[in-house]
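For this section, I looked closely at the sequence of one protein beside the tokens encoding its backbone, which the following lines show:
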Amino acid sequence: MKKKTIKATVSAVSIATAFAGISVVKAEDVTATQPNESALSVESKAPSFTNIKQVDGVFVHNGVATVTKTPTSEVVEEARAIKEEADQSVSNQESALENAKASEATAATKVSEANVDLINAEENKLSATPEKIEKTKNEISEVKADIDKKETSLKDASDKVLEAEKERNQQSEVIQKDQDKISEQEKKVSTAEEAVATAQKNLDGTGASEIIAERDKTKSDVAEKESAESAAKKALENAINEDKNKAEELSKASSDEKTQLSASQISAKQLADAKKVAEEAANALVKAQKEKETAQKVLDGTGVEEIVAERDAAKKNLDATTATENTAKQELDRAKEADDKKATALKNAKSVEADQIKKSQETAANLSSAEEKQKQAQENLKKAQENKVSAQSNLDASESQLAQTIANRDSKANDLANKQNSKIIAEEELKTAKENDAKKASEISALTTKKNQEEAKVNETSNELASATSAAQEAKGNKEKADQAVETLNKQIAAIKNLTIPQLPQDVIDAYKTYLADDSDANKNALNDVIQKWFKDSKYDFGTALTEYSPEHQNIFIKEWSNKDIVLPIDDSVVDLDNLTDKQIEALSQYYALLANNLQDQVWGSHHYIVTEESVQGVKNIAKAYAEENKPYSTSHSDTALAKDGLDSIAWAGENLNFNNTLLGYGAYYSEAKETRRTTMSQLYREVYDSVISFITNDVHAYFGHMKLMIGEKAPTKTRAVGAANSFTASGVGRMHFIEFKGQDAHLEYVKDEQTGEYHLVSVDDYYDKGIAKPLATPFDTSKMEDELTAAKAKQTAANTANNSAQNRLEKAKSENDSSTKALKETTAKLDAWKATPDQTPAATTKLEIATQNYNEAQTQFNEAQDALDQLNADIQSKRQALANAKDNLDQATTAEVKAKSDLEKAKLENQNAIESLKQTQKLVEELMSVPDQTPSAQKKYDNAKQLKEEAETRYTKAQIALDNLNADLQVKQKALETAKEELEKAIAADKTARNNLDEVTKIHEKHLAALNTTRQTIARLNSISDKTPLAQKNLNEASQQLIAAKTRYAKAQSAVENLNADIQTKQKVLADARAELDKELKVLSDLKAKKATDEAELRNRQNKVEELKAKESQIKNEISKLKTHLVALETLLDHLENADAYLKKAKEAYENAVEEHRLALENVAREEAKLKIFLQDQLDATAQYEAVREAYLNTRTRQSEVFNDKVDHKMISLNPALEKSIPESTSNERVYSYAGNQAKYAANRALPNTSSIENWLVFAMGIVLCSFGISVSRKHRD
């Protein structure tokens, strides 16, 4: 791109500016540039118009800023601040616009939702028949009776649970006592073991230093424990005093709170009364002032017309307020009745909620208990594992010595006691071994031969079994396929042959033709009467919907219909309601054609409906167009959608519509199709049947237009293609479409009758006349199916014969294979047993040699080994018993831990189920509570109306008195005026007193509230402080127990020290006594554990009984909860049915409010968009202003860096390459900079303005003068 830069001398600039004002350049002289660049240009001034503040030396107009004065840095900074403020305003307004659009979207959603609610309310109004209401009341009575029965059963079950829990708790206490005894006995055993160990050390003469050290240590420990107990006693005393002080302070604060709460409630009541009195005084003052003015006017003889007008207005107002009061009273009565019904439903729901809250609390408590038990079980398990490891370690230490001792003693004992006759026995065993080995070899040989023979037999029978199994499976599969084929064909044929097709009686046909001949209201009503008489409770009427409550969906659904004899086509294939296939639409169309053609045959003796490929495609495309339009059903037929058949050959000629009542649950009931947008072909066949019936029985309101289109208004003479399809909108509106089609170019022509010579209109339709319409074969012809059934039965017979033969072969092969396999298994087992039996001869020989050698050495060594073994065995026996006890404890702890985990999981599940049930009920309670009570507003409205009436009566009375006073004498008028003045003064005084009293009462109430708040904070602080006495008491108990244990240990240690110097006999006796005492304590411990095990078994039985009874109780509670939930739903339904008009009115009001809210939201969006447009223009102006002053400021700074050359008679203006612009001089020796903004990107406009003024000629003339002075002007073009 090109730019022009002018270089000139200072003298030239001075001369030029002397002749020219603001120089301008034609835009045509400059190469056009892009809008995202900025340029400096000279421009003539234009009037300034902008919303922003203009800085000094700048004027702004429509996004173009012109600088006429050299800016300072302060001006640039001010312009920058203005620009940033404008940017922020745009940002804020964009957010405001987004919020407005979001509000509009929300309002639109509300309109859609309110429309759905309105449709539902309308459907509810239609279904609110006396029969439906009475049926619902009966269901409510039945449910209440069931609840009473269940609650009686629940009381019995709860009593049984309480009794069982009492027995279980008693047994738990027994086990706890058992455990306490065991724990105490274990301490005695431990003490006895220590006594044995000490006695053994005394006897051995070892451990004296350890015994003395133990005595000294226990003595020191006793002193420490005594000191700890004393400190614990002191801490307990302090804790008791602190808790007592806290309790006294809390008691005083609680008392103060009650007093202050009472005072605040009294002052609140006084405040409310004072406000009321103040309001009444203010109103009285206004009235007194007005009455005084009226009396003055009466006395002055003025205001007659006003007084008369006031009396008339007061009378009119009195009549109006009386009527309003009566209306308000009626509305109040209705509101109370509605609120009573809602309160009953809410009470029942809250009853269910209370039961479920109790249930959730119970399960939460059980869960907490289970978690605590599981935690305790884990701790017990850990402790038991540690004890077992310790006992095992102690035993291993002793048994490590036992191995060598036993080996030594056994060797000696065997040599002495057992090997005396070992040589003779070994010789006899050797002889027997040789005989047995010979028998073994013979048996192995015989069994090997037998096994080979039986293996061959097994191979043979296995091959036969595999072959028979394969053949049997194939034959069974063929039989099942044949059976299924026959069953399917039988069902299809039976369904088609037995299809229910409505048969019109002759009186209906006659009435229909009569109405066609004369469509008077009388004939229309007569036709409707005979139709209703024919259809009501007939075999073509499905009858009453039998409903059932679904806990899963929290709604009532239609389970079946009272008339179960109607036969429709059976097809359980799944249908996607958003995308019906061509085959599905064809099937629906054929079924409709079958029903309609039968009806036409009954009325006219012939029919004209066919189904073609074009009619199937046409109705498919039209139904899709309906769905895409997503309009409510109330919009009726859509010409726009009907025009979208998508075919060139046909066009729609007529359409019947019907709403998917059964498919969508009649609005009030649960419908799976609503949620999944899926159904079955059987259900759509039902929709076709219902539509055909509806076009006859429910068409009086449409003047039987649907019936006319379906049956015809005269005997058919020409064929008509028809299509039937279902549409389902995104908002859940379902329609069944039945559309007749004509040829695209169908028309009427005048044709001359050759016989009469007259012309008459003839219908011409090439689609039918030229055979373009090809009827599709109907699927309701059973002849082909019957042929297929005959062939299928033949296949079934053959398959049965083959299957029986194959099954017999299989049974025989199984029997033979089982027999051969069993024989081989037995032979193999015998053979393996013989082979596994080792040869006896070698071992017997070795045994004889060892016995002979060892016998000679045994006697000498036996006595020495026996003594050592006896002592070691006694020690090991004690430790083994300890290990056995530890293992028993570990097994019990493991079992308890597993059970605790199981109980915890069960408790979690029960708690989750209880919480989920509670959430559902609470949701229902919230929904009921969200419905506002009507009584308060109605009561307030009535009270207001009553008060307005009373005020109107007072106003009328006073107005009448004022009117009467007009004719009174002067003295009466003066008296009335004086009375009015006195009343005014009283009112002024009363108003002042009331306001003063209100101020005083307000201060008192605020003071009471402040005191109450302070006291409650004190109570909260005190309650947050835990009592210290329980912990201090626990610490004291533990310290006392530790002191007792320490003293016992010290006594035993002292006794052991005294035994150090006793003689050997005394030490042996002490050891023997200690061992005897240990055996005694171990026996007691064993008996206690056995008793605990028995008691635990009994506890498990009792716990199982509790769980069984609780399960029954829980089952009854769940049944009651479901019944109560169902009761609430029924009562809600009854309320909707009985108050259908009120709910419909409410839905209409809600819809109208939603529409109004949406309208206001749209207006708000428009307002915010308009504001944004203004802010964008301000941003454009501010940006232009800032860029202009900034660049002017930068260029001014650049001029200060000009380089002067004394040898050259001109100066070069050096510009920053990024800012270099064409900069002519102004007359005031200051440049004028213009910046044009772009609203899209806020870029400068480089196109210079048109400059056709005379100033252009002045510049040209000055150029000639400058040339005569030898001024060099160069123009440089740069990209």
About this structure: The CA atoms of residues 542 and 563 lie 5 Å apart. DSSP finds 23 helices and 15 strands in the chain.
